[in-house]
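Protein entry
_____________
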Amino acid sequence: MKRMLVLIVAIIVAAHLGAIHYLPGSGQRIEPSRRDFHLKYHSGSDDLHFYGSNSWAVCFDFANYYHPNHINLSFTINSLVLWFPQVGDSVQVRLMTDVEGTPGLPQLASFGAFTDANLLQIQLQEPITSEKLWMLVDYPTNFSSKFVSASNGGGTHSYFLNTTMTTPYYQSFANAGFNAELLFGVTGYFEDLNLFQLTQLDLDGVMMPGAEVFPRFRIYNHSNTTLQDVRLNLTLSAQSASHNINRNISLPEPIPPHSEFVWNSSHPDYHSQGITLPEVPLQMRMRGVCYHGNQPSNSLDKYLYIFADEPPIFLVENFLRQNNAATILDLENQILTDEIYRNIHNLTYFPVLADSLANPGSSAHFNWYGFSSTPQIALGGKRRMQGLTGGFTNLFKANCDSLITDRGFISYADVDITYETDNISFRFVYANDSTTLLSGSGAYNLSTNSRFFAGLFKKVQLNGNTSWVFERWVKHAMALADPLNKDDEITIQSLTSLIGIDLDAEYRLYYWLQER
């Protein structure tokens, strides 16, 4: 398992009844070139294309951007950065004062612009300094050709003008049920902030015992001073101190004021800082802290799963409507016929109850994930594909190539099934023979944060495609009562009724653990 024995995920659903809707985005990464600090709430990915409103907004709360470490900050804006999925339109952008949590007067600035490229950067003639303000983007959208872009996650900073009420108002995406942030941001610098910030920290490479990985990070200098002596202290901590790793990387060049330093595979010293992971499977905690002399920056933390057990199968989960299922499943099956993908199993959920193959269990799983539309595809739980876009086949294959490299911490899994008069009883067993997980005060407990799923899937023919369609849950999102650390074993028992089961049909039982 990878964090799970066999992963699942869910995605899907009926269209929202609110004022706005969305279609899947391209998944393209948005990386504007910049010298100034790019302050934004989105993740930089074109995940969703929204339509249905004529005005869109982001509220920038500069004063609390680094709360609680720094409060009452002011930010000087030099430019506005917006990304649109289509070009050839005009857009009006206004900067407004915050009045008790809503945009109000006085208006601070207004700009008219033409989107001759997806990335629109508007340079301010006079910088604007504020603790909190609103960016309003007046841009009529429609279902067919005009959208605004957003990335998955969040939703508390992005708004749309809701005109379905008697008095129109700006409603947050989160309040409307959308976990997304608009691809609108600003560049500039914080006033009187003597701070340098570690803004990104990752390890490149395959997370396997004994593998070599390479640090990748970004540091931003918010101060007015050139930083001459900066180093990154990187620690990888395991349950046993004998596996701990500590590395200091000194930056070979200074960081000018209000500038970003990037350490990645393009840097000439990148490959000289390789780290060999422990030879045994374990969970580790990575922490990075930058120092200017003896002055520390913020810290960034991430948990690493250096696992070795290969799961018996890998799951692809499709959340579909019946009117588009055949098209998507046919494209997937063209890829999955390759022998290297023989252990990938394709599962299908119909969460929209208007479909004849839908059921409340699919809808419940959709709600557990918090997704909002179909079609969606999840591979191994963490790889997501939204909709039927132009590069679907290539993207699906790339995700499958990544999926089959997943490893987990479950060494053994089994189930005993007993048929009774009106019921079926199940006894599931999981064992962890070799992987040491973190435990104790302050540690992220992977066992506690894992959930158990077991479901019955029915063999169904969908326009010539053999599909395993979700029928009912045996267990859904059940927390583990006992730990699953090295040398631990757990048993889960359950019972399901035979009522409603088509005894002439063919079923499969899929069961897995998944990090919540």
